[in-house]
Design a protein that fits this description.
The longest helix has 36 residues. By secondary structure, the chain is an all-alpha fold. It is globular, with a radius of gyration of 20 Å.
Length: 386
Amino acid sequence: MQRKPAIHHRGNPRALVRATCTPLASIFGSGFLVMVPILAGAVGTYAVLAMTLVCALAYCVGAVIRFNIRFAEPVLAKDPPESTLTFERSSDLALVLAYVISVSLYLHILSAFVLGSLHLDTPFNEDLLTTAVIVLIVTIGITRGLNGLAAMEGLALAVTLLIIVLLIGGFALYDLHAWRSPAGLQFFKAKPHSVWEILTIVAGTLIVVQGFETTRYLGDSFEAGTRIRASRLSQLISTGVYLVFIAVALPLVHTLNGKYGDNSLIHLAAAASSLLVVPLVIAAAMSQFSAAVADTLAATGNLEEVTHHQLKPRFATVLVGGGAIALTWTADTLQIVALASRAFAFYYLLQCLVAISVSQSTRQRLFFTLIAIALGFITVFAVPAS
């Protein structure tokens, strides 16, 4: 995929902030809403350790993306080897599929939180509301275009970060009061799982840290150095926030009584303070809608490039929306989480092959190969949390 000359130059702090907002918004898009119940149900009180391992793998994958920004993009912009071009084009197609799945995921989560706050969260109602929102996005995309809605990204990120800070504060106060009480902190017992079950369930959570790869496609606005730093910074910030978030949330998980659903965070927020519920639902709705719009735009853009602009934007939007609707009615939220993780793992695997094809170092190729093997495991074996 060729890149146009960048607009912003390295050393511009504003450019770095702007470039960091896009991957950060994508990473926080759905992760903080679903990761606590999924990891708690899989590994219990080892959730922080599991999240650390997921973030460590994601950081290694991010290193692959950053390598490709620095070394693969110049090769692709000139006269690339056939293998490099094939892997890159294949990854573009894989990314379209991953984005279609993520659109369905984001709006499934939106529906779960909105309906959960109204005590109307049945599977049929969630599928119906998800479909309605997808139809709305497609209609706006066909008639007016989605670029106007995409401007919500910055506001959605700000609201999401604010509610995360409020939740961390609320959970921390709950933990402090519980620790000082005669009963002390209460922890839950996770359902028994084999090592294989734990590995495959945790493998299905890769989607919660997905988003750093968006810097790979911001070459029209930012030069390579800025995008590399933005990718790294977004991963470091999100890792720190996620680990703290899970740590302070764990002492409240026993209030779920072993029932881990896609909107369980609502119940955790209510256990800490009823004042947190409404802001959480608003943040969930805004962040998921904004993320779905962004991924619809990204998917249609990739479809246009893959088809050499033979496919018109309107028809591409219909294809993306149709695929998301079809998935909505065939899988629940946790199943889509695992499916999205597998789809993005496959895309990242192909990016590893791109990196291997342009690398001149045996040590680097070995590193990329090991990461590709881990991603291959996720692609094949990741399963939804039960």
